[in-house]
Amino acid sequence: xxxxxxxxxxxxxxxxxxxxxxxxxxxxxxxxxxxxxxxxxxxxxxxxxxxxxxx
Length: 55
What we know:
This protein is 84% helix and 0% strand.
């Protein structure tokens, strides 16, 4: 479980950075920005579930 949490933290940080960079050049409604944001949301929710239910 610990490894999964660690990987999720890395994914979250990577997607946060990517989203920040995308927003420097694209509008928030651009398809790629929305997609990146949705993936980030999924990873955050998964991370929170793991932390809450015993990681």
